[in-house]
Amino acid sequence: MASTDEITNSPEAKIMASSSTPTKSVRYDVFINHCGPDTKQTLAASIYRALKLMGLEVFLDEPVDEPELDVGDSISSQIQYAITTSFLHIAIFSPRYAESPWILEELSLMLKTDQTIIPVFYNVEPSDMHWICKGKGVYAEAFLKLEAKKRYTSQKLEDWKSALQKVSYLKGHIVNSHDDQEVLKIIANLVLKKIKKTSFVVAKHPVGLDKTLRAFERSVLESSKNVKIVGITGMSGCGKTTLAKEYYNKMIQSFYRCSFVCDVRNTPTKYMYEKQKKMFQDLGGSKDILFNSIEEGKAILSEYLSHVQVFIILDNVDHQDQLESLVPTKNSLIKDSVVVVTSRDPGVLISWGIPSISIYKMKDLNPQHATELFCWHAFEQPSPIYEFEYLVKEFLIVCKGLPLSLKVLGELVRGKSKEYWNGQLEKFSRSLHQDIKTILMVNFDALDDEEEKEIFLDISCFFIGTEKDSAITVWEESGWSGAGSLGTLMDKSLVEVDEKNCLRMHDLLRDLGRDISKTRSPYRLWSPKQITHIQQQGKGNVLIRGIKARTDEFYEEFVELVRESGRGIKRKWGLKILDVEKNYFTEELATLSEGLVSLRWAKFPHRAIPSWISLKKLRVLELCDASKLEEPWNEIADPPVQLRVLNIIHARNFQRFPRSIGFLKHLQKISFDGKGAPIEGLPDEFCSLQSLQCLELVGCPKLKLLPSNIGDLTNLEHLRLKECKGIEGLPEEFGRLKSLDYLVLDGCDQLKSLPSKIGDLTNLRHLELSGCGIEDLPKEFGRLQSLHFLKISECHELKSLSSKFGDLAKLKELELLECRKLMIPSEALVQLTSLYRLYIAACPGLTEFVTQPECLSSLFCSLENQDLTIIMT
Question: CB 3.0-4.6 Å disulfide test: which of 41, 90, 234, 831 passes with 806?
């Protein structure tokens, strides 16, 4: 172990420990690492002047050459700053280079930044550095002297030697004279070449490409850490190469060693070494190194890629051998390197070792983007011309959102008659189609993770139409990474999440999942035939993950299966998910509830959940069409303390929430739709729900007050009160809901005012006031500094906005609808400088809107039944 003296006096400590502010705050283009006595006034100065003349920001300094390394903090701070901020480094190796620990430590720090290093060998040879670890070469004597001083640990000395050896393999220049103008010109041009990258021309009409790029980065690249090796898959013509080029253009300024290897698939195997050589040279390798065979190329690339950070795109790969030829040591790539592979076959990528979560499945263009792309190619505009609208729709059906088809067919019919269009439509309607089911089956088969397969089957059998967060809660109880696995299924287009945050799946995939579940354990039961299959297995444990009982036939068959357990056929159920209706869950099945995690009960027939049902492990409870329900569980019953989600729908006789609800410390969401339920209030214990994030109360006309301690719900983010006509006011404690982001007050016609403390809702971004009896907005309303969206509609008594309304500095969208008494001074909106969308309808009191010209250029204003003049100040 190093002594305290060794640590504090090491060059690494001197460079890294300083926290003083650098004397120069710019980011440098180039840092020159050199030995002062050898090159300060000669070669280093010449390179410095040449680069400065080209307009580059260059750092050149001389490390203190004293054995004790007693250097002031300001100097070491400046060196560290210059190294870590430079886009590129030049290391000048000269005979006395290794005598200075400072210079060696600079080199180590340069390597840690992963930026490009250009080595210059001044009166030394690269071989002097190749053999340093074996004690040979011109630098061997210098290291013997450093060892003799006994100031530096053996590990530190080895690190310096390793740094020298690594840099020696980089493409460099041998210089024998400091004023060799030809060499100086080569070095300067090389620096510029490394800093300025050439981008691709991607597409003439890049419709929807920015959205696809964001989705690719979000779903694939953000899930990878350190070295990123990712794939893009999809059928020919779906836009894989276009996406890869767009991503390349975005990233090349962040990397100094970049290569885009085009059309790998069409390169004959015997000529693959030419692709190897091109990629090697793109990444900064020497043109003098020969690639005589694929195996020789593998050896060169294997060594090179293990020492440098790279950004590589391999386009149109169709065989694993191609990948192994171009990136032979993917597990040895330097940290933060990126390799992107495009292929029609996801199996190739998976076989090579890219995990499913790192493969992005291209999607067809949505109808809007498909229309725009086709029309750009057919008409040179984003929409159909007159009398061609119907034909465009027919061609979109044929193209099925495939970019290549949209481009080719659009160009084919450009400038042609309708008769020609019809003829081509008839021809291609039979030949341009895709087998969606087969493509998605390939993705399903590629799911290596059993957890992902189980979640896919859960969705196909039970969770189509279920809120995503509720399903994730169930999967987490099973010890699964619900959100991560769902993300993988979404990436592979096996599952979708709609605009209401609910899970959706193609009908064919749903049928596929249910077919698999018929014979796969743990079983997911919904068909009487499945029960027959289990009975034929005889004795033994049968794991049943979930049941969906919706018919009399199924219920009767399943009850008989359970009765067999009482006749000596012992089975272990393991039931987690139960989806039933009416009286299909009876006391005879009580034992099934012991491990129940999710219970959805439609046409709920009881006053409360029966006491014979175990709730101890329940996380999701949904009671639908619960016309007889008066309370979710009896006050004296043990509450479901593990509950996360409580949904009660159409419970028109609902009376109360039990006081024991306060024990549900994990409850995150309550959604209640009473359909006119007579509930009059919420218990004070309701506000002990410290984990509650979402509260929705709908159809509670007799609810008059919210609890006075509602401010205790410190994690509440989403609050929706609809058709709660009895509420006359909100408690002052309302302002303590510091996490509240989304607030909707809809149909609360007895609500005459908002509390003054509403201005304390510093995180509120979305507010809707619809059908309320509010007469004016308090002046504190202007303190809602995070408010982005405001909708006020059908507030027939509202006469004026807050006097501080103009203080809503971040308001971007404003809707004013059917507020017939609302009088708005023309200057009231002029201060809303962030406003970009204004929608006004049936507000006769608003006749003028004053704005500034710079705001008007980006403002979308829609007027309906409104006579309004826009005045520019």
Answer: 831
Give CA–CA dist 598/619, Å, rounded: 6
Strand partners, 503: 497
Q: Is the whole-model pTM more than 0.85?
A: no
SS3 state at 258: strand
Please name the amino acid found at residue 316.
N
Give the mean model confidence (pLDDT) for residues 56-69.
54
CB 781 within 8 A of CB 757: no
Q: What letter represents residue 359's amino acid? A: I
- In degrees and rounded to multiples of 5, residue 9 shows phi and psi of -100, 0
Alpha helix segments (H runs only) across 289-345: 294-305, 320-326
Q: Which of 788, 795, 791 is closest to 832 using CA atoms?
A: 788
Instruction: Report the chain's terminal Cα–Cα distance, integer Å.
Output: 73
Per-residue b/e over 813-833, b at no fewer than 16 CB within 10 Å? bbbbbbbeebebeeebbbbbe
**Alpha-carbon gap, residue 557 to 658, rounded angstroms:** 36
Contact in structure between 139 and 128 (CB atoms under 8 Å) = yes
| CA 472 to chain CA centroid, nearest Å | 17
**pLDDT in the model for residue 851:** 59
How far is residue 592's CA from residue 117's CA, in Å, rounded to a whole number? Answer: 66
Residues forming a β-bridge with 814: 790, 838
- Picking from 147-161, 362-376, 516-530, 858-872, which range would have the lowest pLDDT averaged per residue? 858-872
Residues 492, 443 contacting (CB under 8 angstroms): yes
Model pLDDT for residues 581-632, shown as the tens digit of each residue: 988 888 878 888 888 999 999 999 999 999 999 999 999 999 999 999 999 9
Cα dihedral 30, 33, 36, 41, rounded to 10, equals -30
Residues linked to residue 813 through DSSP beta bridges, in sequence order: 789, 837
How many C-alpha atoms does 580 have within 13 Å on its Cβ side? 22
- The predicted pLDDT at position 643 comes to 96
Least Cα distance to 358 among 346, 345, 344 occurs for 346
Tokens of 632: 């979710």
> How many residues can be counted in the chain?
873
Region 632-658: mean pLDDT is 93
The H-or-E segment that residue 58 falls in is strand 58-60
Q: What is the DSSP letter of 463?
A: I
**59-63, 144-148, 338-342: range with lowest mean pLDDT:** 59-63
CA–CA dist 812, 791 (Å, integer): 11
Say what the pLDDT of residue 72 is. 36
- What is the β-pairing status of strands 338-343 and 173-175? unpaired
Spatial separation of the C-alpha atoms in residues 613 and 483, rounded to whole Å: 29
Residue-wise pLDDT tens digits, 653-681:
999 999 999 999 999 999 999 989 999 99
* Count of C-beta atoms within a 10 Å radius of residue 142: 18
Angle of helix 418-428 relative to helix 403-413, nearest 10 degrees, comes to 140
Distance CA 859, CA 873 (A): 15
Longest Cα pair distance anywhere in the chain, in angstroms?
Answer: 100
For the chain, count helices (H), then strands (E).
Answer: 28, 29
Cα dihedral 490/494/499/501 (nearest 10): -70
